[in-house]
Fold this protein.
Amino acid sequence: MNPSPATPRSPRRPRWRNLESFVHIQTVLLIAAVLATLFTAWTDPGLLPGALGDRITINFSDSVAPPPGAIGSPTPRSRPLIGLVAGHSGNDSGAVCADGLTEVSINTQIAAYVQKYLSEKGIDVEVLKEFDDRLDSYQALALISIHTDSCDYVNDQATGFKVASTLSNPHPERSARLVSCLRNRYAQATGLSLHNSITNDMTYYHAFDEINNETTAVIIEIGFMNLDRQLLTEHPDVVASGITNGVMCFINNENIAPQPTP
């Protein structure tokens, strides 16, 4: 008996065609992944379903987030600067009493107290000498020159304090306010009365012509070394508090109660 003929087999596809299909599939998947990544990166997370946007964008935000405070931090404002001239310091003794008490020693002590008190209130303070080189074009919110009146006995009215500013001032309203604040607060703190004997040495005080025009400046005679001696030498903290309160009145634009005329 003759054997039956073999059943013909289906033709086999070449292996290189299967490999080509696999590569095409991988390429398509890779392109899809890239497009999906780009889509989510540039799409508002709120447009994606559910929490998908949140899960995707977390990875991006972690990689590019700026350090805390790097963006949007407000620039700190500089603190006000007040200049204090300790009258006659670095130059001479000023007025001198028979027992050797000097004006410069009082002025220097009061200036140190005022610097301390203002610094405690968050104000930057510089204490300058009488003819300090820094006075040339000196720029600050205010400059107060501290002096003390004569030790000679003149009469029973030679007591009290004086405050004056320059006669030629580009900003007279500022000077007037600083003068008013110091007069009011100093009288309240010390109990001294305003002495209306303003001299040319005060209104034409040398520093007024040396400092920057934007610096509001005054000179204060804090009392007489004769009749006001006890206050000046035994209670410098009270004297300094009066000046400090006057400066803060000016800085904070505080109300000024009417000052009675002596």
Remarks:
- The CA atoms of residues 190 and 239 lie 6 Å apart.
- The radius of gyration is 41 Å.
- Residues 15-41 form the longest helix (27 residues).
- Residues 1-19, 34-77 have pLDDT under 50 and may be disordered.
